[in-house]
Amino acid sequence: MDDRKNALAAAGRDTQLCHLGNDPFAYHGFVNPPVVHASTVLFPDVQTMETRNQKYTYGTHGTPTTDALCSAIDALEGSAGTILVPSGLAAITVPFLAYLSAGDHALIVDSVYGPCRRFCNGMLKRLGVEVEYYDPEIGAGIEALIRPNTRLVHTEAPGSNTFEMQDIRAIAEAAHRHDCVVTMDNTWATPIFFKALDFGVDVSIHAATKYPSGHSDILMGTVSANAAHWKKLEDAYTVLGMSASPDDSYMILRGLRTMGLRLEAHQKAALQVAEWLEPRDDVARVLHPALPSFPGHEIWKRDFKGASGIFSFVLAADDPAKFKPKARAFLNALNIFGLGYSWGGYESLAVPVDLSDRTIRKAPEEGAVIRLQIGLENVEDLTADLARGFAAAAEV
């Protein structure tokens, strides 16, 4: 077993993805771990029950199936421990509840995932936590915003919908000088393209609903912490009674096996579509960190190993009254792109972006923002579909 572990540690990305999280010979040689459905777990005697001196004690505290996925995620993240929760939003809210108390101050990036903002402005404030939003491009300047009661700095790179890049290492170093915990929503890049804990992040958050699943049919979140912050996260997870189903855990583990290959395909196609969009007169801007024209490109190039399949563009309009009508016409004309939320699956999606909740990074003035998830279809079919959208928008 140690020889196999050492071999995997030195292996390439896709080799690791194919083998992490399971020891076939622990389960009679079967390649995939068993799906263990459990609520009640029996104890051999009262003493063991009282001391809980056995590996499994109740279904919410883990099964061989969920442990297999946690083990794989820990290996990818370099983390001390991982919890599995029922959604990506839960993956954000559980660590916030773990590390924040009444009277604390939290710094949240202004380009944050929308439901996270709703949680912060609603439940966190109701619980007595003061929330302040900061510019995603603040970098080391975030130190000026840290107060004596600041306990947590939440990052997301690239930012939701507008894809601003953050200097994660600089932010983490500043936060740690004041004993703040640094959390990051790293769903866009996954640990394949950005290993958050290596850049000073304490707690790495993912919506496994997206690329780890890859098929738009599972809801799950993962939260991975370094050694200094693992125990507090684990305690909160236990107290809240959060757990993910063994069936979904099995399917996410299955999805990990091909995630590297799928990400490469998403990356290649998305960049081709972005480059096709950029010179168009009806496109004011393309918001994709891998494009040299994007303001945060140099940070992306320095810190990230790749780009995923989701980005946005600004649909040009000379009259603000036409922003929404043009966007609606564009979207309604699409045949291959589906109109649907989420991303990371095999199918391409398009959605209008609402930035009305922003406090610092406001909506662009050139037109409506449309977000694209580039799936695994042929690029020429996707660009032809987008051309139909632009033709429809031009009629407005």
From TrEMBL:
GO molecular-function terms, A-Z: lyase activity
Catalytic activity: L,L-cystathionine + H2O = L-homocysteine + pyruvate + NH4(+)
Gene3D superfamilies referenced in this protein's UniProt entry, alphabetically: Aspartate Aminotransferase, domain 1 (3.90.1150.10), Type I PLP-dependent aspartate aminotransferase-like (Major domain) (3.40.640.10)
Cofactor: pyridoxal 5'-phosphate
Membrane-crossing residue ranges in chain numbering: none
Enzyme class: lyase
One Pfam entry name: Cys_Met_Meta_PP
Keywords: Lyase, Pyridoxal phosphate
Entry-linked InterPro entries: Cys/Met-Metab_PyrdxlP-dep_enz (IPR000277), Cys_b_lyase_bac (IPR006233), PyrdxlP-dep_Trfase (IPR015424), PyrdxlP-dep_Trfase_major (IPR015421), PyrdxlP-dep_Trfase_small (IPR015422)
Keyword Cell inner membrane: no
The enzyme's E.C. designation: 4.4.1.8
Family statement drawn from the similarity comment of this UniProt entry: Belongs to the trans-sulfuration enzymes family.
Name of the molecule in the record: Cystathionine beta-lyase
Organism: Rhizobium halophytocola
